[in-house]
Specification:
Chain lengths: ~110, ~110
């Protein structure tokens, strides 16, 4: 059974800092991996989708990498801003539609 | 930009009552999903729906749950007899194809008292 783990559970950084969020998964037989942002009490906003054949995907200040064989993905956020404060969720698509991690709660301090 | 919408945003119901949660997926999408998130826990897959039938369901999706696409736009989740443990945020999502990016709605917070 696929398990997704995100470390750290919470992270607090000063504005302007670059940061990395980590995601690991136990079963490397995945089709793709998706990163989401969730604001408190709100829905999930899709940030990036990486297909299993890709190594990286970029959108603005966000860069996601995927190492399928080692079961890891990272989300790099450049020049963080207070508006980036949210919970970031990683989810993998294997034989079951989207298995989620518990998320990393990010606070960017002005 | 097209988006997934869900109604109501918050539903309060008494234990044993039936509830129907509604979703309008993105119009050209063909795959529809329901997920739930109990407070403080992970988002969990419930069911996927394609071509007017369930394509996959999780262990959580037992006989108390059903899904329907009653017309060309709505996608509903019915909980027949709600229990306290059904209290959660329920998210609908849709995708163009089976393995494509999924887009989520804002969720319905269900509170069972």
């Amino acid at each position: 059974k696929q398990e997704v783990t995100q470390i750290p559970a919470a992270l607090s950084v000063p504005e302007g800092e670059n940061l990395v969020l980590n995601c690991s998964f136990t079963d490397s037989a995945i089709y793709n991996l998706q990163w989401f942002r969730q604001d408190p009490g709100k829905g999930l906003t899709s940030l990036l989708l990486i297909q299993s054949s890709q190594r990286e995907q970029t959108s603005g200040r966000l860069n996601a990498s995927l190492d399928k064989s080692s079961g890891r993905s990272t989300l790099y956020i450049a020049a963080s801003q207070p508006g980036d404060s949210a919970t970031y969720l990683c989810a993998v698509r294997g034989n079951t539609p989207l298995v989620f991690g518990k998320g990393t709660r990010l606070s960017v301090i002005a | 930009e097209p988006e997934v919408t869900q109604t109501p945003s918050h539903q309060v119901t008494q234990m044993g009552q039936e509830v129907i949660l509604r979703c309008v997926p993105i119009s050209n999408h063909l795959y529809f999903y329901w997920y739930r998130q109990i407070l403080g826990q992970k988002v969990e897959f419930l069911v996927s729906f394609y071509n007017n039938e369930i394509s996959e369901k999780s262990e959580i999706f037992d006989d108390q749950f059903s899904v329907e696409r009653p017309d060309g736009s709505n996608f509903t989740l019915k909980i027949r007899s709600t229990k306290l443990e059904d209290s959660a945020m329920y998210f609908c999502s849709s995708g163009l194809a089976d393995l494509s990016e999924q887009y989520f709605g804002p969720g319905t917070r269900l509170t069972v008292t």
